[in-house]
Design a protein that fits this description.
By secondary structure, this protein is of the alpha/beta class. The chain has nine helices and 17 strands. Bound molecules: zinc ion (ZN) (2 copies).
Length: 280
Amino acid sequence: MSLHVLGCAGSLALGHHTTTFRIDADILLDAGSGLARVPLAELACIDHVLLTHSHIDHLLGVPLLVDGVLRLRTAAGRPPIAVHALPQTLDALSRHILNDVIWPDFTRLPRPEAPALTLHPLAVGDVLTLGSRQRRVRVLPAAHSVPAVGYAIHPQQAGGGVAFSGDTGPCPALWAALQREPVATLIIEAAFADHDAQLAARSGHHTPESLARELAALAGPRPFGALRLTHAKPGEEAAIAADLSRALATHGLTGLDVAPLREGERIAISPHPTKHVTLP
Ligand SMILES: [Zn+2]
Ligand SMILES: [Zn+2]
């Protein structure tokens, strides 16, 4: 199993795509502009989309994906693309995107009885088993400006795995969930540098300082092997990296395997309980 980083930026610019991760060939974790990095024939193999929340940087690819691969998927006899998310996220997608104004309602097209897209509500704590390879997905809590979740993805065997926070500010419930189910790699957001701390707090995002405070407050062993940071606003990467070094030192956090996530990188999702592995 692997996680392919197709987009991990907080906004758009040359070389920066918004949040899009692909698990193996058939599962998307958020559907941002990173889809534009994938050949059409591979896009047609995506059967499941897990959305963290309703913000456009995380779901702009859904309406375009379903339209773009419809012909190929119909010809191959593939099922509808299944979108999994909180009920509030699905409602926002239906009402504000797939509303026959912004985009056609593909939950009723090409025919109401055989749509190209189906919507599947979930709740924090749910465990989904997806695809023929039976990847196990646990829905994690998050604290953002709209209802939001994260996901932990595990191989069929217990242990290991990768967790993704989605967009979140400080969220004790997320750490409690991870402590019950540690992962090899935790992908967590740090969208803003510390000079934007007020904006981050108001919009439900982390800065390096708020993230380091949560890490320092953890009791017991860290529930992850490696930490990878995502969702930096383009142009803010250097400031975030400098703030992170300072915050980790201030809070006495040593020995952490921490680095920014890189667009294009692939992370192994193995049953090993703690080891983070970057694939070539
Ligand atoms: Zn957001
Ligand atoms: Zn976002």
